[in-house]
Amino acid sequence: MTELALRRTPVDRERLLRLVQEYGVYLGVAVLVLVNTVFTPHFVSGENFRTQAVQVAPVLIVALGMALAIGSEGVDLSVGSVMALSTSLISLYLGYGPWLAIIVAVLGGMAVGLANGSLIAFIGVQPIVATLALMVAGRGLALVLLPQLKDVRDPGMATLGSGDLLGIPHLVLIAAALALAVAFTVRRTTFGRQLLAIGDSRPAAQLAGLPVRRVLILVYVVSGALAAIAGVLATARLSASDPTSLGTLMELSAITAVVVGGTPLSGGRVRIGGTVAGAVLIQLLTATLIKHDLPPSWTQIAQAVVIVAAVCAARERGKR
Questions:
Q1: pLDDT at position 295, please?
Q2: Number of structural domains, the chain?
Q3: Residue pair 262/19 in contact by the 8 Å Cβ criterion
Q4: Residues of the chain below pLDDT 70
Q5: pTM over 0.85, yes/no
Q6: d(CA 21, CA 215)
Q7: Is there a domain that residue 6 lies in?
Q8: 112 neighbors 168 (Cβ within 8 angstroms)
């Protein structure tokens, strides 16, 4: 009987690790909701839930693009700078109308993504190096275009940032629609299957004749576009363009949401549902610390701990 128990121990441990990786993020969200319900005054209210949903929307949108990049066995460190660049472009082109300004901002993000993808696909630069370079260059360009904070006064932007449809904020509706679109793309399209194949093994994908370069470029163009959209929405919500601070450390929040959501850093898999839950987890964790008067620096420490725990769980599972 003892021998049987010893034989079952590795299996039980593997099963536990699998459950943690698959469902741990949902358990974390449930625990935070329960803790806040009990210990945080006025947590259970429509106004608070609306506030949390609005604040998580830009993080989720950026995390969707990050999930695609990580699924292709890469990473996009330039997302925060793309948000800063988009807010600068919004301010510069808003005089021509909000829609033109939004289009220019998104095109700017796509241009950064095209540069990232080209460096990775054609020159062979490692994703972390290529996107790090664009992270620095993108923030610098944003500050050149708009050196300081500037108010954004436009009815269209105000409606986008604070308006709602049937009581649901526009920001939340846009984030939900983008999450569904990305999930459909990953699961139901040829592009999604090719992305996962490349992330699983790029040499094998090349031998199979898949358009590796084209897919990688599209991944980073989409990531750049999503980060720019997040920057536009954040600008609309704040009614101000601030390239100095907008998007700062957003790459950390996005990576945390993706990794905690179950998408492995080794690529080959993308969990959009888990990414959504991961973004909610990060927002609830931040809100919990703030509501209990802990300094913002604790949020960064907590995110780092969560990332390490998620990566360690994934590595332990991968060893078996």
A1: 74
A2: 1
A3: no
A4: 1-11, 13-14, 16-21, 310-311, 313-320
A5: yes
A6: 27
A7: no
A8: no
pLDDT for res 288:
85
pLDDT score of 73: 92
pLDDT of residue 7: 53
43 inside domain: no
Q: Range of 156's domain?
A: 49-318
Contact 96, 153 (CB under 8 A): no
Place of tokens 């500037």: 150
315 alpha-carbon distance from chain centroid:
22
**In a domain? residue 39:** no
pLDDT for the residue 264: 87
The neighbour count for residue 23, using CB atoms within 10 Å, is 14
Residue 77 lies inside a defined structural domain of this protein: yes
First-to-last C-alpha distance (Å) of the chain: 24
Between CA 72 and CA 201 the distance in angstroms is 9
Q: What is the CATH number of the domain that holds 59?
A: 1.10.3470
